[in-house]
Design a protein that fits this description.
Strand content: 35-45%
Order of helices and strands: EEHEEE
Number of helices: 1
Strand order of the largest sheet: 3-4-5
Largest sheet: 3 strands, antiparallel
Structural class: mainly beta
Radius of gyration: 12 Å
Length: 73
């Protein structure tokens, strides 16, 4: 499987988006509906907790949002 482009919103109240490159393992966690995962942006090495989120359509959960940036020691 190839690396995937992932564009979650930067926060629940923002329409600005990150452009992340994910490896196959992280991409397998990204889906529609209710989900939550820790992922690594392959471009920057930064880790984030992300979750499924509603888009602008009623009862649709096809979007994603960053919950927090994880600090790596």
């Amino acid at each position: 499987m190839t690396n995937g482009l992932f564009t979650p919103r930067k926060s629940a109240s923002s329409n600005d988006r990150y452009e992340m490159k994910l490896n196959a393992e992280d991409m397998a966690h990204v889906r529609r509906g209710r989900w939550k995962a820790d992922i690594t942006d392959q471009n920057t090495g930064k880790r984030y907790t992300v979750r499924g989120a509603a888009c602008s359509a009623p009862r649709c959960l096809c979007d994603a949002v960053v919950v927090k940036e994880l600090v790596c020691n």
